[in-house]
Fold these 2 entries.
Entry 1:
Amino acid sequence: MAKLYFHYAAMDAGKTTMLLQAAYNYRERGMNAMLFIAGHYKKGERGYISSRIGLEAEAEMFRDGDDLFARVAEHHARETVHAVFVDEAQFLEDEQVWQLGRVADRLGIPVLCYGLRTDFQGKLFSGSKALLAIADELREVRTVCRCGRKATMVVRLGPDGKVAKQGAQVAIGKEAYVSLCRRHWEEEMGRTEPDDFLGFATR
Ligand SMILES: [Zn+2]
C-alpha cells in the first residue's frame, strides 16, 4: 500500500535536505523519483529544489489549478515512477492534496510532501491544512527555539529587522524567518507579557 506522507516543520528545520537525501536514495537504487516544487513565485517550467547545505536537484513546478494526478499518471505511463516528492507542500491547493492521495491510492506510488505547518501569524497554509487532514502519515521535522525548546512557530522579520504582525501570507522581498517555540512566538508577537524576553532588538 502506497501512502501519502506529510513531513512538516517550522522554518529551517532541514526539510529540504531530508527530501533531497530521500530522493537521492531512490535514484541511487535505479528507481525513478519525480520531484515537484511550488512555482507560484517563480517563472518557467523547470525549477530547482536546493537546500542550505548545498544539495540541489531539478524539479517540476506546480501552480494553482494544475492537475497533479494527471501529471504523475502521464509521466508514469511513459516511464515507471517509484516515488513522488513535493517540496513547499504548504502551497498545494486542497484539491491538489486529494490528487496526490489518488496517486498513492490508484497508481500505487508513495507521495512524500515536505512543508511548513503554519505561517508567521500561526495560521495553517492551505496545503498543510489538507495534508494534516488526509495524509496517511504525519512526521514532524524538529528544530529548536533559541531557548532550546522545540520550535513549532515562525516569525517574519521585515527588512528593518522588526517582527511583522500582519501582512500577506507570503512576502517576496528581503524578509527573514526565525523559528521559535510557542511561548517565545507569543512574546515576540506582542501577545503575552515578555517574562524572559530576549527580543531580536537586544541580541
Ligand atoms: Zn523558546
Entry 2:
Amino acid sequence: MSAIPGKAPSVKLPPQIESGSELLLEELGRLLTVEETLAKVVLPELLRELQDKELLTAVDDHLQETQGHAGRVKEAFLAIGAMPAGRPALGLEGLRVEHKAFAPQVVPGARSVVHCAAAMGVEHYEINAYDSAIGLARALGAQEVERLLRANLDQEVAALQTLGRHASRLARLAVEERTVSQV
Ligand SMILES: [Fe+2]
Ligand SMILES: [Fe+2]
C-alpha cells in the first residue's frame, strides 16, 4: 500500500463496537448530544438571527419540542438499563459551522431562505439518525426504546414539513423583493 507523503501511517485500532446493543447505545449517545446541542446552542443561536416572524415562531415551537426530545432519549437509555451518556455528533457540528460561515455572505433580504434551509438540514440529519436507531431498536426487540424514538421522529418529520412550507414562501419573497429592487 502506498503511503501519503508527509503523513504519519495511520494506526488501525480493532473495532470497539461489537454488538447490536452496543451500536444502539452509540446511536442513542449521538442523538442525546444532538438534541442537547440543538436545545441549548444551535436553535437559540438561530432564533437570534431570524427576522421573519413566522419562521421564528416555527423554530421556537420546535425548540420547545426539542427540549422534550432530549428527555425521551434519556428515557430510552434507562429503558435498556443504561446510563444516559452523550457521544460526539460531528455531523451536526459540521452543519452548524457551514451555516455560520455561509449565512453572513447572503444579503439580509434573502438570508431567511438560508436560515430555513439550515434548519431543514438539521431535521434531515435528525430523521436519518432516528431512522437508524429505530431500526436497531426494533431488531433488538427494545419496544420501549422504539416507542420513545418514534415519538421524537414524528415531531421531526412534522417540523420538516412546516419548515418546507416556510422555505417555499421565503424563496418567493426573496425573489419578489429582488425583482422589485431591480425595477
Ligand atoms: Fe429533535
Ligand atoms: Fe428537530
